[in-house]
From TrEMBL:
It comes from the Bacteria. The keyword Ion transport does not apply. Coiled coil: none annotated. This is Peptide/nickel transport system permease protein. One of its GO terms (biological process) is transmembrane transport. Keywords: Cell membrane, Membrane, Transmembrane, Transmembrane helix, Transport.
Length: 292
C-alpha cells in the first residue's frame, strides 16, 4: 500500500511540475500550429489582395519577364510572361483552396447523407446504395478522375465536379459505419420506441453525432484533394492558364527549371505547407474526438 501511495504521489508531483505542463503545452501546440498555418495561408490568399498592393496575376509585361526576387514592385520577381509571382501564388492559392473546400463540402453533404440514410433504413435500400458505391470504389479513382476531367474539359468547376464525384463513396462509408454504431445506443433505441419521425432521427440524433468523424475525414481529405487538383492542373486538366493555380504554376515553372528554379519552389512550398496544416489539424481532431 505504501509503495502504491508513493507511486501515486510521484505521478501527481510530476503532473504538477514541468511534465504535466509540458504535455499540456504540447497538446495546445498540436492544435495551434496547424490552425496558425491555415490562418496565414487563407489570410494571405483571400485577405491580402483586398488590403495590400498586389499586382494583377495575369496580363503582365513581357519586357519585365524573369525579374529576380525583391525587384521593385515585385516581391518574388516575375515569370517568363512578366506576371508577378507573388500575385499568382496568392490567387493560385485561392483556386486550390476553393476546389479543396468545395469538393469536401459536396462529399460530406452527399456522401454523409447517403451513408446515414442507408444505415438507418437498412434492407433493400441499404443494399442498393452500398453496391452502387462499391462499384465506384472498385475503379481506380485517380484514373477515372483523369478521364472525367478530360471529358468535361479543363475548368475550376469541372475539376470540382470530377473530384467530388469520387469523394462521395468514402464519406458515405464513414457515415454508414458511424450510423450503424449509433443505432445500438440506448438513446437511439428509446427515440425509436417513442415513434420519432425518420427525418428527426437523422437530423437531431444521427447528424450531430457523426459530424465530428466526417469533419475529421474532410480535414485529412482536404490535403489529398489539393494535391490531386495540383496534379490535374500540372497535366493541363485542371484550372487552365492563364488563370493561376499552384499546379499549373509548377507545370509552367518546370519548363525553365534550370534557369529559374524558384518559379517551382514557391508554389511547391505553399502546397506543402497547406497540405501539412490540413493533415496535422485532421490528425489532432481525430485523436481528440476519439478520446485518446
Amino acid at each position: 500500500m505504501a509503495m502504491v501511495d508513493a507511486s501515486a504521489s510521484a505521478v501527481l508531483l510530476a503532473e504538477d511540475t514541468g511534465l504535466g505542463r509540458g504535455r499540456g503545452w504540447l497538446r495546445q501546440l498540436e492544435l495551434v500550429v496547424p490552425i496558425a498555418l491555415l490562418v496565414l495561408v487563407v489570410g494571405a490568399c483571400f485577405v491580402w489582395p483586398l488590403v495590400g498592393p498586389v499586382p494583377d496575376p495575369i496580363g503582365g509585361d513581357v519586357l519585365s519577364s524573369n525579374l529576380p526576387s525583391f525587384s521593385p514592385g515585385h516581391l518574388l520577381g516575375t515569370d517568363p510572361n512578366g506576371n508577378d509571382v507573388w500575385a499568382r501564388l496568392l490567387y493560385g492559392g485561392r483556386s486550390s483552396l476553393i476546389v479543396g473546400v468545395s469538393v469536401n463540402v459536396l462529399g460530406l453533404l452527399i456522401g454523409g447523407t447517403l451513408g446515414a440514410v442507408s444505415a438507418y433504413a437498412g434492407g433493400v435500400l441499404d443494399a442498393i446504395i452500398m453496391r452502387v458505391l462499391d462499384v465506384l470504389i472498385a475503379f481506380p479513382s485517380l484514373v477515372l478522375t483523369l478521364a472525367v476531367a478530360q471529358s468535361l474539359g479543363p475548368s475550376q468547376l469541372n475539376t470540382i465536379f470530377a473530384l467530388a464525384f469520387f469523394s462521395v463513396p468514402a464519406f458515405a462509408r464513414i457515415s454508414r459505419a458511424a450510423t450503424l454504431r449509433l443505432r445500438e445506443q440506448p438513446f437511439m433505441v428509446a427515440a425509436d420506441l417513442c415513434g420519432t419521425r425518420t427525418w428527426r432521427m437523422l437530423f437531431k440524433h444521427i447528424a450531430p453525432n457523426i459530424l465530428p468523424q466526417l469533419v475529421t475525414f474532410s480535414m485529412l481529405g482536404m490535403g489529398i484533394v489539393i494535391v490531386i487538383e495540383g496534379a490535374l492542373s500540372f497535366l493541363g486538366l485542371g484550372i487552365p492558364p492563364p488563370a493561376p493555380s499552384w499546379g499549373n504554376m509548377i507545370s509552367q515553372g518546370q519548363q525553365s527549371l534550370s534557369a529559374t528554379p524558384m518559379l517551382v519552389v514557391w508554389p511547391c512550398l505553399m502546397l506543402f505547407l497547406t497540405v501539412l496544416a490540413f493533415n496535422l489539424l485532421g490528425e489532432t481532431l481525430r485523436s481528440r474526438w476519439s478520446g485518446r
